[in-house]
Design a protein that fits this description.
By secondary structure, this protein is mainly alpha-helical. It has one domain: Uncharacterized conserved protein DUF2267 (Globin-like), CATH 1.10.490.110. Helix content is 58%, strand content 5%. The protein contains 7 helices and 2 strands. Strands 1-2 form a two-stranded antiparallel ribbon. A hairpin with a 2-residue loop joins strand 1 and strand 2. Helix 2 packs antiparallel against helix 3 and helix 2 packs antiparallel against helix 5.
Length: 157
């Protein structure tokens, strides 16, 4: 279905649940653009995909599935795309986690991977809330916790 509103053309499925999920996914991508002060929605998608895949492969299968359940429908497909649950979780380090995100950008040397991962986790927090992200964080090594929004980080002693 094609909607034309002023200068904007929008393609819809005609199925409200799908259209709403696509709209929500676009909101997430736009929020990543704002967080990173980027212009390219493709880059926002790469950041989101890379972070989701790195989380998916690092988390225990049950926690990985619980995280996926919180995602908008199109992002569930992105999340599970290419996933092989055998041998999960992969016990990789913070550096290896960042490298997995970096691979989405063809290893562009000019990227601040910590900033990218923080931005994606911030957007996930803004849309999913603290509960699931606290569970995700608790399943990762403590040196990765700095990437999570301060609202869900444990108080420093």
């Amino acid at each position: 279905m094609l909607k034309i509103s002023g200068d904007e053309i929008q393609v819809t499925t005609g199925v409200s649940n799908l259209d709403n999920s696509i709209d929500t996914t676009n909101i997430w991508l736009n929020d990543i653009l704002k967080q990173l002060q980027w212009q390219s929605k493709i880059s926002a998608y790469q950041a989101l995909r890379g972070t989701l895949h790195a989380l998916r492969d690092r988390l225990p299968i049950e926690e990985s599935a619980q995280l996926a359940a919180q995602l908008p429908l199109p992002l569930k497909g992105v999340y599970y795309d290419g996933w092989k649950p055998v041998g999960k979780p992969e016990k990789y380090s913070k550096v290896e986690f960042a490298r997995k995100v970096h691979e989405q950008f063809d290893l562009d040397p000019d990227l601040d991977l910590g900033m990218i991962i923080r931005a994606v986790l911030r957007v996930m927090y803004n849309h999913m809330g603290a509960g699931e992200l606290k569970d995700v964080r608790s399943n990762l090594p403590k040196d990765m916790w700095e990437w999570f929004p301060e609202e869900i980080r444990p108080a420093e002693k």
